[in-house]
Amino acid sequence: MFKDLDPILHSQLRLATMSLLISVKEAEFTFIKEQTNATAGNLSVQIQKLKDAGYIEVIKEFKDNYPNTTCKITPKGVRAFEDYVKSLQAYLHITKK
After folding, report:
1. Other Cβ atoms closer than 10 A to 53
2. Which of 4, 73, 85, 91 has fewest C-beta within 10 Å?
């Protein structure tokens, strides 16, 4: 039987954010916003959901007197993303070679 797809990751913007973070490990909010073409408000909401799930860590600090938010993928987030990809592959009947 197929494993259910993770509802946290099964959202276009959250999946795009996790896909980006899986490759760079951490990124500033503005970089994620630019790469995903998201609005700041929508991205903030989706980042909070990923944080609440324990998939990312959010670091808020000041950089040159300006607030700066950095998102970093957690080991739990890496596992969840890998499981999500495996589930998709099973749905699509793709096997790793």
Report:
1. 17
2. 4
Closest CA to 78 of 8, 35, 21: 21
Q: How far, in Å, CA of 78 to CA of 55, rounded? A: 7
Q: Does residue 89 carry a pLDDT above 90?
A: no
The rounded distance, in Å, linking the Cα atoms of 37 and 95 is: 32
Residue 97 tokens, joined: 């070679």
Pick the CATH number of 12-91 from 3.40.50.1220, 3.30.450.20, 1.20.120.350, 1.10.10.10: 1.10.10.10
pLDDT digits (tens, 9 = 90+) for 66-82: 999 999 999 999 999 99
Q: Please state the domain extents for the chain.
A: 12-91
| Residue whose C-alpha is closest to residue 22's, from 89, 71, 92 | 71
In this structure, are residues 61 and 68 in contact, taking their beta carbons and an 8 Å threshold?
yes
